[in-house]
Write a structure and sequence with these properties.
about 130 residues, mainly alpha, single chain, about 0% strand, 3 helices
Length: about 130
């Protein structure tokens, strides 16, 4: 049936025409005798059930691994954001330290020694000679 070939084609990503040719070749190999002994059918069914269970186990393990990878990726993103915040804070601290050193290096307008009994030369500038 054409619809079945198309369905298998979509699932397997094999062109329907290729599947049809392969099916005809298979029938030819078996000389169109598709009768199967009950014992062979039960063996096939058992192996198919085991394959399904193995597939489900692998799929489950894959899901667990995918979840762990996603969690690891999230942790790495959070760590990167934290590192960026630390770097930003460190840069701000360096700027503040630079500004403080710059202020400390500026000459002071206060006299080196201050005698409270003398008038400040900054408050009372001396008269200019005439």
């Amino acid at each position: 049936p054409l619809k079945m070939s198309q369905s298998w084609s979509q699932v397997s990503k094999i062109p329907a025409r290729t599947l049809n040719v392969a099916e005809l070749e298979l029938y030819t190999v078996f000389k169109w005798d598709l009768w199967v002994r009950e014992e062979d059918y039960r063996d096939w069914l058992k192996s198919t059930e085991q394959a399904v269970l193995e597939f489900e186990r692998c799929t489950n393990e894959t899901a667990v691994i995918r979840t762990l990878i996603e969690k690891q990726h999230l942790l790495e993103q959070q760590d990167l954001q934290y590192q960026q915040q630390l770097q930003h804070q460190h840069q701000r601290m360096e700027i503040q330290q630079y500004q403080m050193r710059k202020l400390a290096a500026q000459p002071s307008f206060a006299p080196d020694s201050f005698d409270p009994g003398e008038p400040s030369p900054y408050l009372y500038p001396s008269a200019s000679p005439s």
